[in-house]
Design goal:
With 1023 residues, the chain is an alpha/beta fold. The strands form seven sheets. The protein has an eleven-stranded mixed β-sheet with strand order 5-4-6-7-1-8-15-14-9-10-12, sandwiched between helices. Strands 26-25-20-19-27-28 form a six-stranded mixed β-sheet, with helices on both faces. The longest helix has 21 residues. The protein is elongated. GO terms for molecular function: 3-oxoacyl-[acyl-carrier-protein] synthase activity; fatty acid synthase activity.
Length: 1023
């Protein structure tokens, strides 16, 4: 048999709400047994001291906490449907989601794939209660019950297209489900498979049966293979594993808990009773599994037995194992059963055992068995080559093998052979063929469907990371791959895990901070702004160069391109802090190198510009990245520009004036040797020209109380004093340039270039003519970027943009600065990437991490809300036809005023369903209910509330019936009927008329109001 990898696990068992707690329970030989919760049934109603009285002999068992809790909003399931669902369906939905996340996958990524779902289940007590109460059987009761729906509902909500089936072979159900899942993977029916098992004791029926059959332990505890064994104790639980072909898991670098080498299933056939175990069939199924796995029984280190603690069951099982292992008396095989910790979890027993074995192989430690101190001497374990573990067993180095048995009460037996994961599992991905990667600081991202869900999961991640040391890079890398797909996007940078834990807790505790670090996605439209001369300083981007291999790679490339034309390393000039960086001959190529390297770094990270604008010399890097010319041509051009300007004679200057160009026109008319060099804003102008003339203008402006500042420059740029260099520069620029392939806003023309070449004529004029930054930037803002990204050594242009008048839309872009000044490091680049991610960009995360950091890490899976409870004490929840279900709680978070992330104002909100939001769910939904005097509105809200189980105070016009309220075709039919009861004028309305108008509650109200208006007023009345 080809091997199957277990790549994801999640579970909830008595005393163990998650996988980590389960392992802890096993390692401390913990006991998950307690008194039957009142929620299940009233203990006094069925308990009796003796079986003869017709009741059960114990009130003890293994029961999980809160089986009534269900985060229905996460799965877009209405309260009424959630109340009708078998709690086993609810538990499986949440458990499967978490198992997929544990496998290092975002569940949304499996949508549409041929992923199979195989569920083992033997209890259907919820259906027995609901479907026999004929007066209250609803459409939801049908889909909420039935074995098939436990698997089919997982496939439906995760949009999985592979095989989907439930298996009932009694106590062996979930191991048989694993067997079928493995075969489906090996046959190519699916590439991933979710195999699960579940059991919830809704009624005492099986407890009474066990008592009447003489199988029930009076203390409610299984005592496997022990001298104290006196019967079965019932247990509950849910578990799911994600399976994949081992070769595929290794190829993708997934973590592997353990490997299934072979499984086998058979039947007792006709033996000494339908429910009695058959030693020979068990012996055969174990041998068949060994053969399929290609292993020698002597190599099995331990076996997780069925181990119910019944006299006959333990005797038959030990005899069957002894047939294969009796020859190893000097090195007996360890034997145990998790039923000693949990009770017999029936349909979930096989998955409980499988998860125990997988965790033991992963930790390379086999937990001790409860009740192993006094073994049942009649079993003669040593003679059969077996022993019970009284202390944990440390597995030796190398491949470890284990067995797992699960036997059904009706005679269907299953056995599996597992081995430890191969050493090559989860190796780092290969280095990118393009060169080094990494930005020097890790980023952590997390998405959630609602703010409260985000807070809850931030706290959970912080607690999990604080309890277990982990490299920040691996945590961040995994978070991008697993914690995606929901509406609210959280992102924060952190150099190490301790810092990350602190930032997660701070954000969860502070609503304002959380709002700043969270976005609601959308489509990011970026504008790159390339800084010009004057922004340079010694050691600019040195911190980023030191920390980020990715940026280092591109700055080195720029330096290599410039070196033949400069004769000196611009990179070394920058990094050593040489003050000559302020000289024009060095400032211009240095700024180009930094701008080009930053732009290329951002591009590798998936931040591609939609719009570009460069301020004066910054336009060279912008043009290069827009495809106007290759790097070598750009380097030759910028180096010549700086050198030729440096050679010009002194005598010129530049003056910044806090006034508009129109205000200065009259003064400049009297000074022909001074002109406008730069227009940075409505009242931000730079003059350039003869120094003496500038000084005269400066005195006049000072007299008129107009603020000015003389700039520290070597020459009068963008003035007539540049003309002596133009001819030589034209020669260098000959045959250089082309048309930009991206929208580039020219500061020469003050507008976007429209298929116009940036050729020699352009670059020569660019030296002499003024920089029309304000004009170009205003046009760029009108194009509607969501973010401006300043590509340069300091955020100079971002502040200029903020001073410009807002565009007609009124929406200003968010400013992102990957480098913020002399002290900038990789964290600023990471923070910039985080801002863009929050705004809807999906970065190329692999470029943000070095090879050694791109390793998977098992993060805490999603933590679901437990605020919503769906259980009726003493009986089923009634889904009445004539009124909303009174037992259903209303989501407290939707009733509590809270500050919205967008405005900070307190408002009553209707929380969207916890799913990837569609176009309508782009902001907080305010409950603007139609006027209560409107009969149509009132009728629609009442009908929706009854069909979905919502209170009318929870319904608002912008809520979408399908995406937010969980409606489906069956509910739409009921909705139509209920609306017609209230609005008889709609009698002629068909479902086909209704379907196109179900986008939102408000759309439906508007349509029906219009429809009713066309009918005689006397026909309108409300129920």
């Amino acid at each position: 048999m080809d091997r199957i990898a277990i790549v994801g696990i999640d579970c909830t068992f008595p005393g163990a709400p998650d996988t980590g707690a389960y392992w802890d329970l096993l390692m401390r030989s913990g006991d998950g047994i307690g008194t039957v919760p009142e929620q299940r049934w009233a203990a006094r109603e069925f308990h009796s001291p003796t079986p003869a009285e017709g009741r059960a002999n114990t009130t003890q068992g293994g029961f999980i906490d809160d089986p009534d809790a269900f985060d229905n909003e996460f799965f877009t399931i209405s309260p009424r449907e959630a109340a009708a669902m078998d709690p086993q369906q609810r538990l499986l939905l949440q458990c499967s989601w978490r198992a997929v996340e544990d496998a290092g996958l975002a569940p949304h990524e499996l949508a549409g794939s041929a992923t199979g779902v195989f569920v083992g289940i033997m209890g259907n007590e919820w259906a027995q209660l609901h479907l026999t109460d004929y007066d209250h059987v609803t459409a939801q009761a049908g889909s909420g019950n039935g074995y098939c729906m436990t698997a089919n509902r997982i496939s439906y909500h995760l949009d999985l297209k592979g095989p989907s089936l439930a298996v009932d072979t009694a106590c062996s159900s979930s191991l048989v489900a694993v067997h079928l899942a493995g075969n489906a993977l090996l046959s190519g029916e699916c590439d991933y498979a979710i195999a699960a098992g579940v059991n919830v004791a809704v009624t005492p029926a099986l407890s009474i049966f066990y008592t009447q059959a003489g199988l029930s332990a009076p203390d409610g505890r299984c005592k496997p293979y022990s001298a104290q064994a006196d019967g079965i104790g019932r247990g509950e639980g849910v578990g799911a594993v994600v399976l994949r072909r081992l070769e595929d898991a290794l190829a993708d670098g997934q973590q592997v808990y353990a490997v299934i080498r072979g499984t086998a299933v058979n039947q007792d056939g006709r033996s000494n009773g339908l429910t009695a175990p058959n030693r020979w069939a068990q012996q055969d199924v174990i041998g068949a599994a060994y053969r399929r796995a290609g292993v020698d029984p002597a190599d099995i280190a331990f076996t997780e037995g069925h181990g119910t603690g019944t006299a006959l069951g333990d005797m038959m099982e030990v005899a069957a194992l002894g047939h294969h292992h009796a020859g190893r008396s000097g090195r007996p095989m360890a034997l145990g059963s998790v039923k000693g910790n949990l009770g017999h979890t029936e349909g979930a027993a096989g998955i409980a055992g499988l998860i125990k074995v997988a965790l033991a192989l992963d930790h390379r430690t086999v937990p001790a068995s409860r009740f192993a101190v006094k073994e049942n001497e009649r079993l003669a374990l040593r003679k059969k080559g077996l022993r019970l573990l009284k202390a944990p067993l440390r597995l030796p180095r190398g491949t470890a093998l284990a067995g797992l048995s699960s036997f059904g009460m009706g005679g269907t037996n299953a056995h599996a052979v597992l081995e430890s994961a191969p050493p090559e599992a989860a190796r780092p991905a290969r280095e990118s063929a393009d060169g080094p990667t990494g930005i020097g600081t890790a980023l952590f991202t997390l998405t959630a469907p609602a703010p409260e869900a985000l807070r809850r999961n931030l706290n959970a991640q912080a607690d999990a990371l604080a309890a277990r040391r982990a490299p920040a890079g691996a945590v961040g890398w995994t978070s991008h791959r697993v914690k995606t797909g929901h509406r609210y996007r959280f992102a924060v940078s952190a150099p190490d895990t301790d810092t990350l834990v602190g930032r997660l807790r701070a954000a969860a505790a502070d609503p304002d901070l959380l709002a700043r670090l969270t976005g609601v996605g959308g489509t990011a439209r970026t504008a790159f702004l390339f800084t010009g001369q004057g922004s340079q300083y010694p050691r600019m981007t040195a911190g980023l160069y030191q920390e980020s291999p990715l940026y280092r790679r591109f700055l080195d490339e720029a330096d290599d391109a410039l070196l033949p034309h400069t004769g000196r390393s611009v990179r070394d000039l920058i990094l050593t802090g040489d003050e000559e960086v302020h000289l024009t001959r060095w400032a211009q190529p240095a700024l180009f190198a930094v701008g080009w390297a930053l732009g290329r770094t951002l591009g590798e990270l998936g931040v591609e510009p939609d719009l570009l604008l460069g301020h004066s010399v910054g336009e060279y890097a912008a043009a290069c990245l827009a495809g106007v010319f290759p790097l070598d041509d750009a380097a030759r051009l910028i180096a010549a520009r700086g050198e030729l300007m440096q050679q010009l004679p002194d005598g010129g200057g530049m003056l910044a004036v806090l006034a508009g160009r129109e205000e200065l026109a009259e003064r400049l008319a009297e000074e022909p040797e001074v002109g406008i060099a730069v227009v940075n804003g409505p009242r931000a102008t730079v003059l350039s020209g003869d120094l003496m003339a500038l000084q005269r203008i400066d005195k006049e402006l000072d007299r008129d109380r107009i603020r000015t500042r003389m700039l520290r420059v070597s020459h009068a740029f963008h003035s007539y004093l540049m003309e002596p260099m133009l001819e030589k520069f034209a020669e260098v620029a000959r045959d250089v340039g082309g048309v930009p392939r991206l929208p580039l806003y020219s500061t020469l023309y003050g507008r976007v270039l429209d298929d116009e070449p940036m050729d020699a004529d352009y670059w020569v004029a660019h030296v002499r003519r003024p920089v029309l930054f304000a004009d170009a930037a205003a046009q760029l803002l009108a194009a509607g970027p969501t973010h401006t990204v300043e590509v340069g050594p300091s955020p100079v242009l971002s502040s200029m943009i903020r001073k410009l008048p807002p565009p007609a839309s009124g929406a200003r872009p968010a400013a992102v600065a990957p480098v913020r000044g002399a002290d900038s490091t990789g964290r600023d680049l990471a923070d910039g990437l985080a801002e863009l991610y929050r705004g809807g960009l999906t970065p190329r995360w692999e470029a943000a991490y070095e090879e050694r950091e791109r390793t998977p890490y098992r993060m805490m899976p999603y933590v679901f809300s437990d605020e919503h409870r769906y259980w009726a004490r003493g009986g089923p929840v009634r889904a009445r036809h004539d009124a909303p279900v009174p037992e259903l709680p209303r989501p407290a978070a939707e009733k509590t005023p809270e500050k919205t992330a967008k405005t900070g104002k307190t408002t009553k909100t209707a929380r969207p369903a916890e799913k990837t939001a569609g176009p309508a769910a782009t902001g907080v939904l305010t409950l603007e209910r139609p006027a209560p005097t409107d009969p149509v509105s009132e009728a629609v809200l009442e009908a929706i509330g009854q069909v979905g189980g919502y209170g009318t105070d929870e319904l608002g016009p912008y809520l979408r019936l399908y995406e937010d309220l969980g409606f489906d075709s069956v509910m739409v039919m009921e909705l139509k009927n209920r609306i017609e009861e209230r609005l008889p004028a709609l009698a002629a309305l068909t479902v086909q008329d209704l379907l196109p108008r179900l986008a939102s509650v408000g759309d439906l109200v508007d349509f029906l109001r219009e429809h009713c208006a066309t009918r005689p007023a006397t026909e309108e009345r409300t129920a």
